[in-house]
Specification:
By secondary structure, this protein is an alpha/beta fold. The protein contains 16 helices and 14 strands. It folds into three domains: 198 residues, Rossmann fold; 168 residues, Rossmann fold (3-Layer(aba) Sandwich), CATH 3.40.50; 54 residues, Roll (SH3 type barrels), CATH 2.30.30. Strands 8-7-6-9-10 form a five-stranded parallel sheet. The protein is globular. 46% of the residues are buried.
């Protein structure tokens, strides 16, 4: 069977992995998860075991714990993180590697004004892979670009850049955790009804997940206040590339109304109004269970709002509580990328359908699998018909213009000496940024270099 590898590849977007490669990551994750459930890899005792099966199991555990011996992972986080940073570090330690870390931008040379691209070029000298979290959209793409052929030739090796979250853009490894949890709970992704609920405008986990769900054939329903709907550029990409048009609702009760099952709201045509509590009508809650297999809840991303008072105005606009769970489907899975604020009641934690802590725990074996593959310690067996070269070609974009991106938090507007890159979006009259993916009118765009 033909082999394809991920060794040395960057994972900036969920689009950097084909469906076949994601399935391969999941198969390897299954193996690592089983090993973790049998005992801590770092504490595998060298004592003698009875029987051939016990010996083989011990050898398997020990072998996993040595996969990345001699390898160094750098976790570079310019935004706060608990789960992503610690799960990557735990994953590398479980594989026998080592970790160096920048856990606070104030303790790095970024506080002195160093450019991100300079920081990455230097850290690549110290590590074999870099996980980057940054407040600016497109920062991970810039980091990958900074390791150009000349720099890689100087290093004598490829150093994968892994996006640990770039502003409100994407979070691909969280999407791997999300999809893996859904598949373990339901045995499949195709055909499932998945509701994305909450702050869909700013939640990078939702943006990456919506792409992953569409690629694997799930039905997407978006539940949010009007001002927090899925970004236009995300919806356009879903429609153009996957013929997927998510249904949009303002509440769970709105979703359950019989005459609303196939109606798409156009946000620009509706009168703006105050956010409503999304779960309020008891007589409709039972219907919800038949409509949804998965509910993916996100918090209001207050740190992404230019005006803090706007975040406060919508903070309490949706909630999942015990009363809801009594009426939704018995097999509905409740997911949340965490941290939560007030959008999931603590009483929900005791319900078997609350999967968010399991979802978080899968971060270690998922990232173990990804690290082992990117560092070339494991290889995937290609099961699909698409060649590796064809898949790589799909990931290549050809950007033509140098019009400045109008997104103020795009990395092109925050990295000194960096040139913007834009691409025409078909015949729509729009341009899309190569870094943050946001769109703007071509006719109203301003040119020039930074």
């Amino acid at each position: 069977m033909a082999m394809s590898g991920l060794a040395g590849r960057h994972v900036i977007s969920i689009f950097d992995l084909s469906n076949d490669e994601i399935e391969g990551v999941f198969r390897l994750t299954d193996r690592f998860l089983s090993a973790l459930q049998r005992g801590p890899l770092s504490l595998v005792a060298p004592r003698r075991k009875r029987g051939a099966r016990a010996k083989a199991r011990g050898n398997d555990l020990a072998a996993i714990g040595r996969l990345c011996t001699g390898q160094v992972l750098a976790t570079v986080f310019f935004e706060p993180s608990t789960r992503t940073r610690l799960s990557f570090e735990a994953a590398m330690n479980r594989l026998g590697g080592r970790v160096i870390s920048v856990a606070d931008a104030r303790t790095s040379s970024a506080a002195k004004g160093e450019r991100l691209s300079d920081t990455v070029r230097v850290i690549a000298s110290y590590a074999d892979a870099i996980v980057l979290r940054h407040p600016n959209e497109g920062a991970a793409a810039l980091a990958a670009e900074s390791l150009d052929e000349q720099r890689l030739a100087e290093l004598g090796r490829r150093v994968p850049i892994i996006n640990g979250g770039d502003g409100a853009h994407e979070h691909p490894t969280q999407t791997l955790c999300d999809l893996y949890t859904i598949k373990r709970d339901h045995g499949k992704i195709e055909g499932l009804n998945v509701a994305l609920c909450g702050d869909l405008l700013h939640a990078r986990t939702v943006h990456s997940l919506s792409y992953g769900l569409a690629r694997f054939g799930a039905n997407i329903k978006c539940i949010s206040p009007p001002e927090l709907r899925l970004p236009r550029y995300v919806k356009r990409r879903l429609e153009i590339e996957f013929e997927c048009v998510p249904a949009e609702y303002e509440s769970f009760s709105d979703l359950a109304a019989p005459d609303r099952q196939h109606v798409i709201y156009a946000a620009e045509k509706r009168r703006r109004r105050a956010a409503k509590h999304l779960v309020s009508d008891e007589d409709l809650q039972e219907i919800i269970g038949r409509l949804l297999d998965v509910v993916y809840v996100t918090r209001v991303q207050a740190e992404r709002f230019a005006e803090p008072e706007r975040a406060e105005a919508v903070r309490g606009s949706y909630s999942i509580d015990a009363e809801v769970l009594r009426r939704i489907g018995r097999d509905t899975t409740i997911l949340h990328p965490l941290p939560r604020v007030n959008e999931v009641d603590y009483a929900v934690d005791q319900d078997a359908r609350a999967a968010y802590f399991r979802q978080a725990s899968y971060g270690v074996p998922i990232r173990m699998a990804l690290m082992a593959l990117l560092l070339g310690r494991k290889r995937l067996r290609r099961r699909g018909k698409e060649s590796e070269e064809a898949a790589a070609e799909k990931r290549v974009n050809h950007w033509g213009t140098t019009v400045r991106c109008q997104n103020p938090t795009c990395i092109t507007n925050n990295e000194r000496g960096m040139l913007p890159r834009m691409e025409a979006v078909g015949d729509t009259g729009l341009l899309r940024c190569a870094y943050c993916d946001q769109e703007q009118e071509a006719s109203g765009a301003s040119g020039g270099e930074k």
